[in-house]
Structure formats: structure tokens, C-alpha cells
Amino acid sequence: MRPPLSALLTAGLLLTSTAAALAATPATTQAARHPDDLDARIHAYLLAHPEVLTEMQQTLATKQAVEREGQTRAVLAANHDALVADAGDAVLGNPKGDVTIVEFFDDECPYCKMMAPTLEAVVKADPGVRVVLKELAVLGPGSEIAARYALAAQRQGKYLALHAALMADKTPEHQLTEARVKEIAAGAGLDTGRLERDSQSADIVVRLQRTRALAQTIGIRGTPGLVIGQAVHSGAMTPDALVKAIATARTAKAP
At a CB cut-off of 8 Å and minimum separation 6, what does 3 contact? Predict the structure, then answer.
């Protein structure tokens, strides 16, 4: 079986650093003229100190994690306004909250439905939290229809009502139909005839495309995807994990 790439990289780094260290001593002057002897000494060193490989792997993993975090912060900063300051996005909680959570969700996603009560509880418990809702329709025709209808509900001032109803709906994933979305919308008090017409508007289609592009840019591949402070989180979060992430974001903003 071929060794993992990370192991090969680590071993390569170790061989390079070990060779450099050995070559820097007078005792290796002769060995430098005899590569086979130097290889043997490196081999013997590794056999005598195998723990060095683990240490180097851990160091490399830490370095890569730090680099990824830096890249994430840079991408989020470059897309700050699109994430947190788009006037077309609906907001839960305090519109002027000191911590913003951006949720990318799909109306058919069962994990998004699981996450909805957690977000509602957090905004009730923490008056400083602001949640920006972004429709990321990725699960097929049903989710595309639901997202278009939800955005169209803004024109009737009832986006949040329809959003809550869609999150509470128990229709199985990939089985949501336009007829069912209309039924849900009617139950939430919307004019479904107007809703259907408005859902066909070009600006809603463009908006959904823009949200998908933004999600891809910042590294979100599925739903729910959450941006909290300078971090991107994939998948539904437990209440404790969400509260901890909010606290971290708030601490990072403190002067």
C-alpha cells in the first residue's frame, strides 16, 4: 500500500532537515563524499528516533491549520459586505447585534430544519446576536422552488413567516413540490397567486445564483453552512457549540 502523501511529505522534510544537520558537522565531511554512507546514517537515526516522525507530522498539521485559518479570514474579509450587509437578506434577532451569524441553508435540508430551533433559541437568549439568512438551493427542484417562493414572500413582507413554516414542514427530502410549497405559504397567510408570479422574476433567479457563487467562494459546499465571526462551520451545530462560537467571535471583536 502506498504511504499517505502527508507521511511522504513529512518523511521528506525529515530527511532534508536531518541530512542538513548531519552535513553541517565535520564528521560528515567524508560522508558527504559517500552518499550511501550518509543514507545509512539517516536510516539509522530514524530507526533510533521514530518519534521524530510523529512530532514532525503534528508540526506540519498545525502549520497547515494556521495557514487555512489565515486564508479563510482573508476570503471572509474580501466578501464581508456580500455576507453581512446585503440589504436583500432577511435577518433574525437584533439587526444591530454585535455578532453576526450568516446561515446558508436549503429549505429541504433536514439538518437545516434541525438547526432552525437552535438559532431561534440563541437569538432569544442573546440580544446581541444577528442572523443573516441566505437561501442556498442545492438539493434539487423542490428546494429551488421553495427558495424562489421564500424570496418572493419578501414582497408581501412575510419572508420570516414562510421561512419558519418551511423549516417546520416535515415533507421528506427531495419530495417537496410546488403544490406543497403553495399549501405551506397559504397556511402562513400569503397570497399564493401573487407569490407564484413574483417567484418567476429574474432578480430572484439572479439572487439565488449569486448566493451559490458566494457560498462556493468562501468554501461552503453543503447545508447548513454558517459563518460566525472569522470562522466557517459546516453542518448543524449543537446549542453549546453555537454559543461557544458566538463567544469566540465576540471576544475577537473586543478592543
Answer: 11
